[in-house]
Amino acid sequence: MDANPARVTFESASARAAGILAAMPLEQKIVKCPLCGWQGFRHADLIEHFTLEHPGCAAPVRVTLDVNGKLCELVIEPQMTLKEVLQFRLGLTGAKEMCNRGACGSCTVIMDGRPALSCNVLASECEGKRIETVEGIAVIPKWKPLIDAYCKWDAMQCGYCTPGFLVAAKALIDRNPSPAVDEINAALSGNICICGTYPRHAQAIIEAVEFMAAEYAGASERGDG
Ligand code: FES
Ligand code: FES
Hints:
Bound molecules: FE2/S2 (inorganic) cluster
Low-confidence stretches: none
CATH topology: Ubiquitin-like (UB roll)
Number of domains: 1
Strand order of the largest sheet: 4-3-7-5-6
CATH architecture: Roll
Number of strands: 7
Distance between the termini: 32 Å
CATH superfamily: Beta-grasp domain
Largest sheet: 5 strands, mixed
Order of helices and strands: HEEHEEHEEEHHHHH
Helix content: 40-55%
């Protein structure tokens, strides 16, 4: 039995992420006016409500977002950022808000394979893009070595910035499976950690990629890779 049941492990993180992903609403049953609270069932009714009650105001828009491989149909305010939609509409709180102005990396997600700052992009502009969040990464067994290495090397203190670092690290490993330390530092240079955990990230990522490479080589030899 684990001496410290509160300790984060891949298994505990993965189980929690799986629960959050299962609860993600894939469609919106009720549409609500953000200005007066009026409620209806269809986007078209909300548009009509805006025309009658709030002429001149920008009405909510309908978007379909591909988040962690699931298509989510939502009605959102046009000024909502991707981070706000992930948090407030989909219940995905892994992407954290620190600066809310594109300067700290704590809200990093992956969009079409590249790291993106979710506080800095309008959700309405994300249709047709493939969005991955830390929750989606945490349920994929391939990334167990990365999460295990982060836990082992204590590459976190308060943990607030950690999802942003992990997502940026995953994006890096996807495009470069054996990054050197300077490449890791460059890839993570947009992520700020107020607790000062910087040296631990490169240690964790180097260990993770070495483990993953050994696993891959073993699987190839066994003929199941
Ligand atoms: S909260 Fe998005 S970059 Fe800081
Ligand atoms: S671990 Fe606290 S901000 Fe990075």
